[in-house]
Design goal:
The protein is mainly α. The protein has helices spanning about 5-10, 10-20, 25-35, 40-50, 55-60, 70-75.
């Protein structure tokens, strides 16, 4: 799932608590979700863990985490080539 879709499911208060648990702000998460900023490697992993792998690290940092990792980590189907 994309971070933007995940955040849409949360209320304003839930987004704030989610951001605080990650050590960031709701504004920064919104910037990540809309690809205006790029999550650092550590934050990408924290988001993946905090969402119980609903949001995969590959969605946040495909440059660091290739799609081949997703089936093992997040349960996504591999991309056909």
């Amino acid at each position: 799932m994309k971070l933007s879709d995940y955040l849409k499911r949360l209320s304003t208060a839930e987004r704030k608590r989610f951001a605080e648990a990650l050590g960031t702000s709701p504004v920064y998460l919104s910037q990540l979700a809309h690809h205006h900023r790029k999550a650092g490697p550590d934050l990408a992993l924290r988001i993946e863990r905090a969402t119980a792998r609903v949001v995969c690290r590959h969605e946040l940092r495909p440059d660091l985490h290739p799609p081949e990792e997703c089936p093992l980590l997040c349960g996504h189907l591999p991309v056909s080539r």
